[in-house]
Write a structure and sequence with these properties.
Length: 247
């Protein structure tokens, strides 16, 4: 039997989603909880490979059980799993899917949000949940700059080293920046993202705000296919996988 879980989590205490040796991960916690619930080893597949420290407001993963596993009705799984998981991981819903179902290959597009706490004063309650940035940001100007990310492009300039992807072409369907009180939020949707792509896109916008990169040059940076032309890779603290749309 295979179940599709919709989950949410804080990434503060984890080294990303994928299971790693000698590191605490979201998939590792799900594997332990699933073994207790279903009484067998379960195969966990996620819709994305979020990095260490990255959060998810919406995430999908499949749990494939073995023959002879405990039979648990899907509507009972969220409550049962949540008693077995740490408080910073929550199962929101569950349903059965065909065996072999992999949400990674069923994803149409994903939306990420990067939240910047834009105020000089410290906010201890946003620690590791937002990026503190004390200097003034013009959200309207950055929104205009972010629009240049939209379209089908080769995003090599926005990919960190160490990736083994075959194609670096991605289609960004929407990109925007807006202010909500003391927060400046960069939202971007695409059919897929390269390694650290959103963090580099955000760093590039901050470099534009600081005058380290000229306004209106994002198309040139994309065309260059050169990581050195883009901005810094900002920390993962304010990054959220906000929405995932499946087929």
């Amino acid at each position: 039997m295979t179940y599709l879980l919709e989950i949410a989590y804080s990434g503060v205490s984890y080294s990303g989603f994928q299971i790693q040796k000698n590191a605490r991960t979201i998939a590792g916690e799900l594997t332990r909880a699933s073994k207790k619930l279903f009484g067998c080893e379960c195969k966990i597949r996620g819709c994305s490979r979020t990095d260490a420290g990255v959060h998810a407001r919406q995430f999908f993963c499949s749990v494939q059980t073995e023959d002879g596993a405990n039979a648990v009705p899907p509507d009972k799984i969220p409550a049962a799993m949540n008693t077995l998981l740490p408080y910073d991981i929550a199962v929101k819903s569950a349903k059965t899917v065909p065996d072999g179902y992999n949400p990674r290959f069923e994803t149409l597009y994903k939306e990420y949000r990067y939240v910047i706490y834009n105020k000089a004063e410290k906010d201890p309650f946003s620690y590791k949940l937002k990026l503190p940035y004390p200097y003034p940001l013009d959200a309207d100007m950055l929104d205009k700059e972010a629009k240049d990310y939209i379209g089908e492009h080769d995003f090599t300039s926005f990919m960190a080293a160490g990736s083994d992807v075959i194609s670096t072409v991605r289609t960004v369907t929407d990109a925007s920046v807006k202010r909500e009180g003391d927060d400046v939020i960069f939202t971007v949707s695409a059919d897929g993202f390269l390694y650290n792509m959103v963090r580099i896109m955000t760093g590039t916008l901050l470099y534009i705000a600081e005058g380290k990169i000229e306004k209106g040059t994002i198309p040139e940076i994309i065309k260059a296919k050169d990581r050195g032309k883009a901005g810094i890779t900002v920390s993962p603290d304010g990054l959220y996988l906000n929405r995932v749309v499946l087929k």
